[in-house]
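Researcher: For the annotation table, I need structure tokens for Reverse transcriptase domain-containing protein. Please keep the output clean. Sequence:
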Amino acid sequence: MVSEGTDDLPVPDLRTMKELCQPSLNGRGGPIAPITIQATNFGLKNHMIQQVQNSCQFHGLPGDDANKHLDKLLHVTQSIKVNEVTDDSLRLYLFPQSLTHHATDWFDRLPRNSINTFKQMAKIFL
């Protein structure tokens, strides 16, 4: 009998490679839900992404400090401003750029369109 608790193993994805390679009519999408932005031609610029990636990468390894990572990310993104884009939206879009290795794998497994604010993202991350 398997005991219930925090040591439960994740359920493996049992889909075949053929099933995994089938295109989706809905597109892949990601965990971040579409956000209404007032700016008409907003897109993350290379310098924004590089600034985040060069300053605060989170690997998701044992011993990595998630709180410290969020503090660094908040500090870095304070200096990035885009007209008609809220700080919350900008941080939410830049957050995945700060992840690598195991942390990226974790992020990619989050449910599609399940995150609407940076505060919600931070809560899930911690």
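Researcher: And a one-line annotation?
Model: The radius of gyration is 17 Å.
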